[in-house]
Here is the input.
Amino acid sequence: MWERKYRDCYCKDASYYMNKQYLEKVFSASRMQKYFNAHPGNEAKAILHYQCNLQISEAFYPSLSVLEVALRNAVNEQLTKKFGTPDWYTHFPTTPGLTNLTKEISRAQQFIVTRGEIVTPSKVVAELTLGFWVRLFNTEYELILWKDLRKAFPNLPKSIRKRKTVSAPLNHFRNLRNRIFHNEPICWSFQNLENAHKEIILIMTWLHKDLPK
Here is the structure.
């Protein structure tokens, strides 16, 4: 799928796009150099490669968005049940093993206050970063949180229902999401992109079987 989209980009008229000097000026020579290095002597193809990287990144947005929002809502639901309150994050400062997460929670609350808004559980959940949600599945929180958080993935087969089964693909997802959101190149290996997309879809099915649809 991704390789076909990439070829479609190449079918466009390269003469439409800006030249090397202009792109290096507006995007920086260091950013563009990796593309020109990949296509020595073919400036037009290098420029199209950069454009296609943007378009392929754009194509990932629906799956990235759907998984990120669904993940945090599923985890939020389990944390609400565990602590018996929608503002579960207020218990982290006094829960042994979770106190090192309070800095991220405080930062999220401060962002809300800075915008002149009232701090509410729903706003805190939305403000917390993807890194925060993924971090909850790290080894250091396994004995504290995994027993509850595993329920966020009702369709995860029992034979592989382990923290590391979830943690590894979530970190892959976070890394790809961050590369795309920080405008980094992703389209060097189409097989890696295909595998990444399949893994994202798989995590979605663990959360809700119909979510990929």
Observations:
- Residues 43-83 form the longest helix (41 residues).
